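If you are new to this repository, start here. Below is one unmodified record pulled from the training split, so you can see the exact layout before writing a loader.
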Amino acid sequence: MPTTIQLKRGDEADLPTLAEGEPGFTTDTHKLFIGDGAANHEIGGGGSGDVTAASAFGTDNRVIRSDGAGKGVQSSTMTIEDTGDATVTGSISASNLSGTNTGDQTITLTGDVTGSGTGSFAATISDNAVTNAKAGDMSANSIKMNVTGSSASPDDVTIAGITSATPVAGDFVLGMLVTGEIRKYDVDDLPGGGVTEPLISGHVALRV
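And here is the target side for that same chain:
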């Protein structure tokens, strides 16, 4: 008649400290322990998802990770395909990620320049966001204006020797009308010398 050998067994929480070399089996978590007289040491692994002969690769392409207690268990959130493509459920935290946004990740710009989208998308500069400091430098003694006679981008127009000194005979000056228009006059045509358009009272004539 065959002899049946049975190990000390029971629920894991009720497993006593095993003697040195004594085996013990947990009937609820299906783990095998060997004692040393002071502590119980697990042999292999057990339970759903643990690395055992029966369940090491129960789900295709799952990543094996440490459970923090010295066992390898299947990850429930990450898979790696044979092609090398990885799929992760949840957030990824890292300080050295790099690459090109070619998927459906949404990027949102805020501040003076706004826009949102995936891959390539249009951005908008907010109204009144471009200050003089952010504009390009201008040439010395120049004004920004359109001199083409039609709608066009402005140019930096240099006026040689611009000054606010009192003009003298033979000079030309820039005067601003009450309508906001700026005109160039011969100094001899200033008010009192033949100009009929009303200039802004107290304006500064620029000598050119």
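Two things worth knowing about this chain: The chain has a mean pLDDT of 74. Residues 8-43 form one domain.
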